[in-house]
Structure formats: C-alpha cells, structure tokens
Design brief:
128 residues, mainly alpha, Cytochrome Bc1 Complex, Chain D, domain 2, globular
C-alpha cells in the first residue's frame, strides 16, 4: 500500500517537473485538469482566506510569513503535512480540513469550500 502511494506521488512529481514551462498554456491546462481549479482564482483566494498570514507563497502579495512552512516549489513536493502523497485529491482535502488529516497540526480549518480548495491547489501546483 505504501509503495503504491509513493509511486502515485512520484508520478505527479514527474509530470510536473518534466512538463512544460509553468507560463505556457499547456502547463496551465494540465494543472486545471488535474485539480478542477483555476490557478488565477486560487491566487486571489489564498489572500481571501488569509493563507499569506502564515505562509511564504510566491506570487502572493504580502505572503512572507514564517508561521507555517513556505509553499515555494509546491509542485515538486513529495508529501503534504509530511505524510500524504502530494496529489490533487490529497491537497484539496488538506486545504479544506487540515485537522482531519493531521489532528496535531497547527493549521486551522478555515472553512475553505470544495471549489476554493481546488482553485488554491491549482495555484500551488504552478509553483515550480
């Protein structure tokens, strides 16, 4: 089971690290298909939900905080919260309900909707 999860996570990373330039439409289309979200909206929603208050997030104005981990190079990460393979499904679950994934996390449940979590995930996957 664990090896299957690692293989899935590795597949996502290979796709994102060997794909097109993040500025190219084909890369953005790939991110949108994978997450069901819109990266442009996700960047705005990161500010709306206050993610910038705890994280350093490239491309988000004022997102230079060090309470939570920096979210730089997100698409190259293997794990979410140190335990979940970095997949779109896992990331949207984490964004919506972090304490359900990791009860001891300091990241609060911010009431992020399903679609907003998909948009935020889409933006994070553009961070290479």
């Amino acid at each position: 089971m664990r090896s299957a999860l690692l293989l899935a996570a590795a597949s996502v990373i290979v796709v994102f690290t060997t794909s097109c330039d993040p500025a190219k439409p084909s890369y953005l289309s790939q991110v949108k298909r994978m997450t069901g979200g819109d990266p442009k909206l996700g960047r705005l929603k990161i500010r709306n939900y206050g993610c910038h208050a705890c994280h350093t997030i490239p491309g988000v104005t004022g997102a230079h905080a060090l309470v939570g981990p920096p979210l730089v190079h997100w698409s190259r990460r293997v794990f979410i919260a140190g335990e979940l393979p970095n997949t779109a499904e896992n990331l949207t679950k984490w964004i919506q309900h972090p304490p359900q994934v990791e009860p001891k996390t300091a990241m609060p449940d911010m009431g992020v909707t399903e679609q907003d979590s998909r948009d935020i995930a889409a933006y994070l996957y553009t961070l290479r």
